[in-house]
Amino acid sequence: MKEITITKREEGQRFDRFLGKYLPGASSGFLHKMLRKKNIKLNGKKAEGREKLSAGDLIQIFFSDETFEKFQKPQEGGKQDTFTDGKSIVQRTQGKQLERTKQKKRLTKEEMNLREQVKVLYSSEDILVFHKPAGMLSQPDDSGEPSMVEYLTGYLLEKGELTEEDLRTFRPSVCNRLDRNTSGLVAAGKSLAGLQELSSLFHDRSLHKFYRCLVNGVIKNEKYIKGYLHKDEKCNKVTVQETETSGALPIETRYRPLEDNGTVTLLEVELITGRTHQIRAHLAGTGHPLIGDYKYGRRTLNDEYCRKYGLKSQLLHAYRLEIPEIEGRLSYLSGKEFTAPLPYLFQKILKEEHVEENK
Q1: Any residues with CB less than 8 A from the CB of 137 and at least 6 apart, and which?
Q2: pLDDT band for position 106 (50/70/90)?
């Protein structure tokens, strides 16, 4: 018999889904059969599988050691684990993410440099807030390059806040995604409840998200702009239109100028909706593309900043998060504000170009 005690990190998920993660080699039908036959019990009683788990719940699995070991291995045929972070899904082949987290492959000098730039800005029992450097992925993709999700997992393993056994049933993940070449605040869940509740705040737009960016041209007045965004999946590029068309999503962006030098303007942008490349495409559509943005910006100007400062990415930084008054597990975050200082190169360019914000 195997006994498992649910931790606060794991609570909140359905019993049958927990079992599916803990015993990835067993089919859903088999697990429900074992529940009906009382070969798997919850708190000493028969369970249906729909129950929501709470911290301290005791699971008893009446399998032989051989059977238990068999079902703890993924089914043959390349079965993948699926981990949900409330609204988004991260799919990784079983064991691959943890293998890279433990750094069994050699990291390049550039990858090591990016890892060193990651900073933990806030930590609680349920969440972490990081500074993500430009050049690092938010979530894993097929490239195999390090991401914030893997950094998060490695960080928690190193701190002893997570064990390899925990990873069978819960994977920490980020709640918001930034473009690879955008720097700034990334929030993550350390518990399932934290992951779900914080992701929900991002999804329903309860959070106020502010960015800093440097754009071409002079802007003197605040503005609230709306439009419709259509994404071309083939080239991973979006277009913004004033009128709605089939497949286009509504977007809303508010910005205010902080300073200009007669050529470029430092903006604070409030991201009201959160679509792919929204700030970059929306501002480019108004005639004010971001400096350093080769996809939506002006190549000649970007080349000039590249030669002068070595700039290789758009000057866009997720600067501030404001948490509203909330209830529930994360109520202690009510009214909190998180900020991530501008990266060194961003600050240097502002100083050299005389576009530092007026205090």
Answers
A1: 143, 145, 146, 147, 148, 180
A2: low
Q: Which amino acid is at 125?
A: E
- Report how far residue 335's alpha carbon sits from residue 65's, in angstroms, rounded to the nearest whole number: 50
Two structure tokens written together for 111: 């990858």
CA end-to-end distance (rounded Å), the chain: 66
- Cβ–Cβ under 8 Å, residues 161 and 128: no
Is residue 139 packed enough to be buried (19+ CB in 10 Å), middle (13-18) or exposed (0-12)? middle
Write the CA distances from 17 to 9, 132, 207, integer angstroms. 15, 31, 29
Q: Please give the single-letter amino acid code of residue 247.
A: G
Pairing of strands 173-174, 316-322: unpaired
- Cβ count near 257 (within 10 Å): 17
Please tell me the distance from the alpha carbon of residue 180 to that of residue 183, in angstroms, as a whole number: 8
pLDDT tens digits along 272-321: 998 889 999 999 999 999 999 999 999 999 999 999 999 999 999 999 99
Closest CA to 12 of 61, 51, 42, 45: 51
Say if CB 175 and CB 85 are below 8 A apart: yes
Helix (H, G, I), strand (E, B) or coil at 322: strand
| E strand or H helix that includes residue 131 | strand 127-132
As a dihedral over the C-alpha atoms of residue 347, residue 348, residue 353, residue 357, rounded to 10 degrees, the angle is: 20
pTM as predicted = 0.79
Q: What DSSP string runs through 214-243?
A: EEES---S-EEEEEEEEEETTTTEEEEESS
The position carrying tokens 């473009």 is 179
Contact 265, 259 (CB under 8 A): yes
Query: Which of 208, 346, 341 has its CA nearest to residue 290?
Result: 346
Bridge partners of 269, per DSSP, are 211, 255
> What's the CA dihedral at 128, 133, 136, 137 to 10 degrees?
50
Half-sphere exposure of 113 (CA within 13 A, CB side): 5
